[in-house]
Structure formats: C-alpha cells, structure tokens
Amino acid sequence: MARVLGDLPGAEAAILQTCHRWECFGYAPGADLPPTLRERLLQACKGGESLAEQFRIRFGPAAVEHLMRVTAGLESPLIGEHEIAAQVKECFREARREGRVGPMLDLVFRNALAAGKKVRQQTAIASGNLSYPGLVWQIIRAHAESPPGRALLIGTGNLARGIAEILAVNRIQPHFIAGRNPERAAELARHFDGGWSPPSELPRCLEDFQVVIGVSGAGRILISGAQLAGLSGPRLLIELSSPPVIAPPSLEYPGLAYYGLNDLKQLAARNMERRQSELPRAELIIAAAVSETVLALYQREQELDIAERSRQIIEAGQLSLETLLRRVEDERLQQELERAWAQQLRKLVYLSIANAKNEALRPAVPLQNHFFPVVVSLKAKPVLIVGGGKVATRKIQRLLEANAVITVVAPKLAPELGPLAAAQRIQWRAECFRPEHLAGAALVIAATDDPDVNRRIVGEARRRNLWVSSAADAADSDFIFPAIIRRGDLLVAISTSGKNPAIARKLRLELESLFGPELEDLNLERDAPKP
Q: What value does the mean pLDDT of the chain take?
C-alpha cells in the first residue's frame, strides 16, 4: 500500500493483520486514485492473482464503516471477538511508529477504536464466552461466590495450556496431571507457577481440589464413579476430553456439579444467540460513529486546506513586503511599514481562515435535530439522579447552581459527593434503582455506568411522562446539558445536540474571552440605560 500510494503527495497507509485476513487502509488527499489501483495492489501482495477472488476494495464511508465493524468484532467468525480490537490498536501503533499515519488515518483509527469500545460497553455483543477456555472460566465463576485458589487439570495438551492461561489471569493456580508427557507437565508447572503430579497421585489430588477439569487424550476413564462417591465437600467437574476421563455421575452426589462436552456446546450456543440478538444495537452505534467520522474527515480536509491557504498568503505577503522595502531607504519608515504590513497580513489570514471554516462547518445535508432551546427555572424543583460516579458529579454541580432539590440513588458515591450528602445539600439513597424512586420527580437523569440500567430508567420515566436525560445517549434523551457561559444575569448556552460535547466545550472556551467579567454587574433591566 505504501509503495502503491507513495507517488501521491501526503498519502497515508496502515496494514492490519488478523487471524483471518490482511487489510490495507490508505488515504490520498485531493487526488483521484489511479484506475489501476486494484491491479497494482494485487501485484504488490504475495500471491498476486491467486488472491483476486478474496480481494475487496472499499472507498470513503464504506471503508470507514468496514474498519469500525472489524474493530467492534462484527466481521469476525465469532461475533463480538474482543481480541480484534487489540490487533487494530497494534496496527495503528505500528503505522504511527513508522511515520505512515497522518491526520486523516489518525482520526479514522481513533474513532474506530472508540466505536468498538462503545459497542462492547453498551451492548452484550462480547458477553458470554465461545471458546472452551472461556466457557470453563464462565462455569467456574457461576459456581463459586469467590474464585478458588487452585484447579486440577488432567492433561497437558494445548487446550490444557489455554485453560491454564485464563485461570492464571484470574489468579487461579493450575496443577497438572501428566501421564505420557511429564516433561511438558513440569514445563507448564514452572510457566504458570503451579504444580504437577503423575496419574498415580490422582486419587489424593481429588481430595485437595474443588475444581477438576478433564482435558486429557488418555482415551479411558481415570476418575471412576466410586471415587466421586467417596469425595467429601463440594466439587465442580468439567469434562472436555473425548472419550471422557471423568466418569459421568450416575447418582446425585451432594455438592457435586458435572459439565460434559455437550453442556459446554449448549452454553456456547446460548452465548452466541445472545450476541446475535445484540447485533441491531451494535449496528446503530456503528452507523452513528460512521456518520460522525465522515463529517469530521470532511472538516479535517477543510482544516488542512485552511492551513495550506494561510501558508500561501503568508509567503506571498512576505515577498510583497520585501519588494516594498527595497523601494524605501529610510530605516525608521521601513520599521513602520513592517509593523503595518504584519497587522494587515494577520487580518487577511484571519478573514481567509474564517471564511474557509464557515464553508467547512456548513453540512452538506440538513442535520436531524429534535432539541429545542429553552431556559427553565429549577429553583426548588425535585430532580432525581441515578448514579453516583464522575458523570453524575458533573451534573449535580450544575444543578446545585440552579438551586434544584437533588436526590441521588446509587449504591456508592464518588468522593466529591460525600461532603454534599453529609451537608444535606443532596439527598442520598444508597440503593439500586427501583421504579418507585421516580415518584415526585420533575426531572430524571440516568447516569449509571450500566447501559441496560440507563435504558430501563429512561423507559420507566417515559411511562410516567417525566422528562428524562440519559448521560450516555443524547439521542435517547428529552433534554441535554449545554456548555454555558454565565456572567451575572447573562447566560450563553452552546450545544451540539449531544453529538460532540468536546466541540461545545471548545466553543465555550473561545467565546469566554468575548464575555468578560465586566459583564457580571451589567444591568439587564428593561428600563436600564443601554450599555
């Protein structure tokens, strides 16, 4: 990709390698891509025409959408695969390290990683495991209030190693039973800081371990029903061997739980079904992210054009000034000319940038916006906030300025909110949300870190005809919080309709210099003299 686009000025390129594909992402500013791009890329790839049937090219928004879907795990053989995000991040990091990423691919990759993270956080697309090691850990978690300190693995193959890895990550020490390969068992024990034993010690090990996992290729029963019947205390048995090495319990032994291969396959099928049910919500998040990214790319192209235009104006102005100064011999007059010329040049550059920005910020199509600006009084109005974290803290600080009566429902509070509750400036109910909490509220704000809970709050509030705002989803809100500038009775509000709060904050910072502290005492009464 770098070679093919190398002759185009300002070209950017990045290469993504996953378990299933190679992908090239490139950008060439202000240039038509050569009509032979497909052929040239095929020639640059090993395999040439043998790759033609698997070769795909996407342009513009379609390419942006594809990268975002890949990053979110929607294009993986296992829907919601979370490892792909790390591979995309490594691709981005490597391309930046080699200097092949410029401002455009930087924007696309950052937004793709953010969109993938949002999909994983706000949907269950990556919940529930599909691999055998992941399913084993899911079963262990479901059967223990706290994870056990150790687990017994009967076998030393690749699957045993994969299970040991996920156990070690969760601070469970593996102990291996090895028959044919004691050397590998010893190596695995050293690697995972665990232990190993020969099959002859298996009966003793059964008494010492509450979790036993069969992953052996022995091809025969190593743990009989009689041995299981003689065990005391609870046991979790997970069988992944085929043929099995743990005899399936024929009787209901007290405290004994047994999972065979079919159980794990059914669990994986249920997990996959749940992931697939989350696809529509994931697609909506990706669609919104693609729209925002394409618009941001357009604006960034305009900004790059603005920078180039400014540079050209400055260069032309400098040449004109040098020509003028050669005609003036008086040194003092030369200095005055330089100062006056610099001032005029700054104005010229400013006007050029302002005009270009106005063009860049003008949308190509009308934007859908269902928000109507209005200023309301919240004095003594009851406001319910569900959530006690950083987002809730920011909302509460704003609402206190408006003299609202605030009730916070959250099991825990952020450190900043503790003193406010102690001083009774807010009422804190240390509980999880229940619909009864909505009684008497004038406004409701869902600000938890659980998207499902936020959606439930919004639904319950709307059923009661209450105004509700979801801190994580402006599109699902009846009202949003704008960035504001307050100078006495003067109030300036700035909003992007919830689409990009960072831009609203930036505009607020830029506008604050226009509304100085001298306006604090400005008399805005109708009969007051005009300022």
A: 79
122-126, 298-302, 314-318, 401-405, range with the lowest pLDDT = 314-318
Distance CA 281, CA 125 (A): 9
**What's the CA dihedral at 55, 56, 59, 63 to 10 degrees?**
-110
Query: Distances in Å between the alpha carbon of 518 and those of 56, 83, 490, 508?
Result: 61, 55, 11, 17
- Dihedral Cα 350, 353, 358, 360, nearest 10 deg: -170
> Angle at CA 91, nearest 5°, toward 86 and 96?
125
Q: Which of 270, 209, 213 has its CA nearest to residue 238? A: 213
With a cut of 50, say whether residue 365 has pLDDT above it: no
Cα–Cα distances in Å, from 461 out to 99, 379, 454, 464, 507? 51, 21, 11, 5, 32
Look at the alpha carbons of 462, 466, 467, 470 in this order and tell me if their dihedral is positive or negative.
Answer: negative
CB 248 within 8 A of CB 272: no
CA atoms of 188 and 362, how far apart (whole Å): 62
Kindly report, residue by residue over 297-342, the tens digit of the pLDDT. 877 776 666 666 666 656 666 666 666 666 666 777 667 767 766 6
What is the 3 state secondary structure string of 30-86? CCCCCCCHHHHHHHHCCCHHHHHHHCCCCCHHHHHHHHHHHHCCCCCCCCCCCHHHH
Q: At what angle do helices 279-325 and 60-71 cross, to 10 degrees?
A: 130
Phi-psi region of 197 (alpha: psi -120 to 50; beta: other; left: phi over 0): beta
| Strand bridging mode 256-259 / 150-154 | unpaired
Distance CA(250)–CA(256), nearest Å, equals 11
The pLDDT of residue 363 is above 50: no
The pTM of the full predicted model, rounded to 2 decimals, is 0.46
In 327-450, where does DSSP find H-type helix? Answer: 331-361, 390-401, 418-422
| Crossing angle for the helix pair 83-97 and 60-71, to the nearest 10 degrees | 120
Instruction: Judge residue 78's burial from the number of C-beta atoms within 10 Å of its C-beta, 0-12 exposed, 13-18 middle, 19 or more buried.
Output: middle
**What number of CA atoms fall less than 13 Å from residue 98's CA on the CB side?**
11
Instruction: Show Cβ contacts of residue 299 under 8 Å, excluding neighbours closer than 6 positions.
Output: 360, 361
Q: Which two tokens stand for residue 56?
A: 């795909």
